[in-house]
Amino acid sequence: MDYDTEPRGPVSELVELLSLERLENNLFRGKSRDIGTRYVFGGQVLGQALSAAQATVEGARAVHSLHAYFLRAGDIEHPIVYVVDRTRDGGSFSVRRVTAIQHGQPIFVVAASFQVHEDGAEHQLPMPVVPAPDDLPPLPPLDAAVRAKLSPKMLRWLDRAGPFEFRHVYPRDELHPGKRPPFQQVWFKLSERIGDTPELHRAMLAYASDFHLIGTATFPHGISYYQPNVVMASLDHAMWFHRPFRIDDWLLYSCDSPTAQGARGLARGTIYDVRGTLVASTAQEGLMRIQPKERA
Length: 296
Prior knowledge:
By secondary structure, this protein is of the alpha+beta class.
């Protein structure tokens, strides 16, 4: 699926990442991008799989939910092939199942449901009361002394020049985390304006929804992804699209974690626009394995 946009820099790279090469009617290939994670970032596979599914849905049907499982770690150095199964096309709903394959093995599966627009009863819970994004400072640059101690991969992950701008309501030092309650609110938006193609905005929101979510489950334990004795990985991801939005306008990601057990943490998220409209919801369970620290 090709998206007609004219952004530059990191945003252009993200648009290209989500613009898959169509090999056959139901077969697509996507590039991989190293953003500092050990393996392919889960949001990349999620966004690309949604792009593949959307490319096979005809007519004015928009995705309203997706449910995914991460099966194997993705190899950053190689592309990913996406196989779409056109499971059902009904009068109002369409369902697509997408399998992501790398090195001959499935690494990810997702089922996505699409619906024609219908009017009906509406309600939503209110947005949390938080400062507006313009009232929050951007993330400060990393201190030179801190940068000197970090690996190139970690520097890429912590790079402030990515395609999204984040402003944390309650910032946390991820390199030296303290214990705190399992919730957070983060304003985010794409750093440049893009076109009006709604499928691109939805694919980008799926990509961005993998940031910050499972990390919320680490808060009560004073640990983070950056610690060498902490192993974290997404196990599954669910997402519901409620109302229209723009990824290049400010959105609030409100996350909480109701439980962690069995080396797994559960996190939930709600995404609002600046007017307080609930536009999407998420849920994710992730591996949270704390290994014994080696003695000096």
